Amino acid sequence: MIFDWLKKRKEDPENSPEFWKAYLKNFEEKLPEEISDVRFVVLDTETTGFSYDNDRMLCIGAVSVCNNKIDMGDNFEVYIKQERFDPESVKIHGIIRNEKISTLTEEEAVKQFLKYIENSILVAHHASFDITMINRALKRLEVPKLKNKVLDTEVLYRRTKILSNLIDRNKRYSLDDIAEAYTIDVTDRHTAAGDAFITAIAFLKILGRLKQKEKLTPAGLVKIK
C-alpha cells in the first residue's frame, strides 16, 4: 500500500528522489536560537476550492522575513497549470482558465518551492489549509510531508490579545481583521503574492507586540497554540 511505501521512504531517504534528498539535507543544520537570525518564509496559496481531496493549488506566493525585515528581493511566486477548474473560485482569486500567464506543472512548482523554503520556519494565515494543500501535492509525488516548523498568524495574533486581556477565546480572526487592526494596505488581497506580503507585515507587527510582553525564541514561538 502507498502508506507503507511512504513510511519506508521516510525511514530510508536514500530511496527518495533527488529533489527530496536535497530538501532533507537542509535539516541537518539546526535552526538559530535567536529570532533575529531565523529565516521565516511567509506564504499563501490560491486554490480551486477548499476540498483537500478534490481541489488543487493554482498559485503559491511567498516572501522571506529575516532580522525583523521583509526581504522583497527574496520572494517566490509560481502559477500552476489548472487540472481542475471551478468558476466560483475565480470570484476570489481572479485566475481564469487558460489565462495567458506562465505556468508550471504541480510537480515542478512544488520542487521549486521546496528549494526556496529550505529549512525556514513557515508562516501563513490559517496555516493548516495552505500546508495541507502543499502536503497533498507532495503525497501525489509520493514523498512525505513538509518538515518545516509552521506558525499561524491567527494563533499569534490571538496570543497578543490574551496577553493584553482582550480576548474572546472562541473568536476567529481573518487576515482582513488583522490588516484592519494594524492599518495594513490590502490592495493586493486574494493574490498569493499579495496575501503573503500582507501576512508578512502582520507577522512583524505581531512579533513586535509579543516582544513587549514576553521573551521570544524560535522554539517558544512554535509552541504557541
From TrEMBL:
Origin: domain of life: Bacteria
Domain Exonuclease, first and last residues per copy: 39-212
Keyword terms, alphabetized: Exonuclease, Hydrolase, Nuclease
This protein's record includes keyword Nuclease: yes
Coiled-coil regions listed in the entry: none
The keyword Hydrolase is annotated on this UniProt entry: yes
GO molecular function: exonuclease activity
Protein name: 3'-5' exonuclease
Lineage: Bacteria, Pseudomonadati, Bacteroidota, Flavobacteriia, Flavobacteriales
